[in-house]
Amino acid sequence: MEPVNIIGAGLAGSEAAWQIARAGVPVILHEMRPSVETFAHKTGDCAEMVCSNSFRSDDDVMNAVGLLHWEMRAAGGLIMEMADRHRLPAGGALAVDRDAFSQAVTQTLRADPLIEIRNGEIADLPDTGNWIVATGPLTSDRLATAIRGLTGTEALAFFDAIAPIVHADTIDMSVAWEQSRYDKGETEAERRAYINCPMTKPQYEAFIDALLAADKTEFHEGETAGYFDGCLPIEVMAERGRETLRHGPMKPVGLTNTHNPEEKAYAVVQLRRDNALGTLYNIVGFQTKMKYGAQTQVFRMIPGLENASFARLGGIHRNSFLNSPTLLDDRMRLRNQPNLRFAGQVTGVEGYVESAAMGLLAGRMAAAQAKGQDLAPPPFTTATGALVNHITGGAEARTFQPMNVNFGLFPPLDQMKGGRKGRKDRYPAYTQRAKDDFSAWLATQ
């Protein structure tokens, strides 16, 4: 049996390789790192998490991304198995020790007799064979040129920013305190999963002033600041209004300062554990394009971080993705060269989980093709199906932008109340329908 070839061993490519091997089909996983590096990646490991260590909500009843977790677990997903194995306390979210997670994914893939990992850059797209392109938002320049030449269109692009990481022992815990918002979590560790730094109104106002005045990274010629709204740099949010951050990552709700329970903070900066040892914390929602010197000055204005030492400062990079509604069919194949499938963020999904889910689906479809079969996508009543339906035809191609999974992508339920008040009944109905339909789809394979 001819192997399936995958370009890119990120979350999508790693998940695709695992699914193909589970189907009994050999697979060659091509990864250019570490021989060809990117500025954002630090290792040559598979499934390296660059921007954050969070897979977001793990609630599979009331949250669409939690439902996507459920579907991937039901499909025997490697990414979710390793995430569960290396999870960190994070309230209702699924956060992982990113180094241990990627190392475990790498070791598992290398140990599988049906998976061969080859290091080295693929610069051209073959016109024969069974291939999955899962190169992600940091596709190499040479391969991106090949993709543009093949599709006859310029890849769209937006900018994605990286949040800074702080050494835990440099946080002043006489000012900060441990608590998840609304004390969310089933264990004490989960209820204390975040470190909170409170701000008074004058401190917040001074912080916003400094944020707006700070030196920023300049764009290169030909680049445009087309940010994805789910990952805006904090200074861009501040430019949209001085109160924007108080209603976003710095909202003070659901938190009580254990040092002064009677005093309500005007704003709160949260830090989330980044490794199992608890020695590193990332500043939640603080993606930034400030220059390094400005970052240390501005972030040390945060109460509790006056003497913070940074393991990593924030950064910004260009993310490329296809105009998938015009280029891909519902089997995730390139319409004008169907031996090529695309998966992951390059297809226009946003987020670790969404990227891995598209890898899972592309892997199963490629494995079916290798066996002379055809696998239809799951119904778009499911989280996986809703995503692939959106990127391969449900979205408006003219205004196509990266999309997280959300219940707005799901077909409505008859006689269910709309609006915010109807969510407590509508969301569980969505998720139950999705679980039934996804289980039925799995049973056909």
TrEMBL record:
Annotated FAD binding sites: 8-13
UniProt cofactor(s): FAD
GO cellular component, one term: cytosol
Catalytic activity: uridine(54) in tRNA + (6R)-5,10-methylene-5,6,7,8-tetrahydrofolate + NADPH + H(+) = 5-methyluridine(54) in tRNA + (6S)-5,6,7,8-tetrahydrofolate + NADP(+); uridine(54) in tRNA + (6R)-5,10-methylene-5,6,7,8-tetrahydrofolate + NADH + H(+) = 5-methyluridine(54) in tRNA + (6S)-5,6,7,8-tetrahydrofolate + NAD(+)
Taxonomic superkingdom: Bacteria
Gene3D superfamilies, alphabetized: FAD/NAD(P)-binding domain
SUPFAM superfamilies: FAD/NAD(P)-binding domain (SSF51905)
The MnmG N-terminal domain, residue ranges: 4-373
Keywords in alphabetical order: Cytoplasm, FAD, Flavoprotein, Methyltransferase, NAD, NADP, Transferase, tRNA processing
EC number(s) recorded for this UniProt protein: 2.1.1.74
InterPro entries in the record: FAD/NAD-bd_sf (IPR036188), MnmG-rel (IPR002218), MnmG-rel_CS (IPR020595), MnmG_N (IPR040131), TrmFO (IPR004417)
Nucleotidyltransferase listed as a keyword: no
Major enzyme class: transferase
Compartment(s) where it occurs, according to its Swiss-Prot or TrEMBL record: Cytoplasm
GO aspect biological process, one term: tRNA wobble uridine modification
A GO molecular-function descriptor: flavin adenine dinucleotide binding
Function: NAD-binding protein involved in the addition of a carboxymethylaminomethyl (cmnm) group at the wobble position (U34) of certain tRNAs, forming tRNA-cmnm(5)s(2)U34. Catalyzes the folate-dependent formation of 5-methyl-uridine at position 54 (M-5-U54) in all tRNAs.
Similarity comment text for this entry: Belongs to the MnmG family. TrmFO subfamily.
Protein name (Swiss-Prot/TrEMBL): Methylenetetrahydrofolate--tRNA-(uracil-5-)-methyltransferase TrmFO
Organism: Paracoccus homiensis
Gene name tied to this protein: trmFO
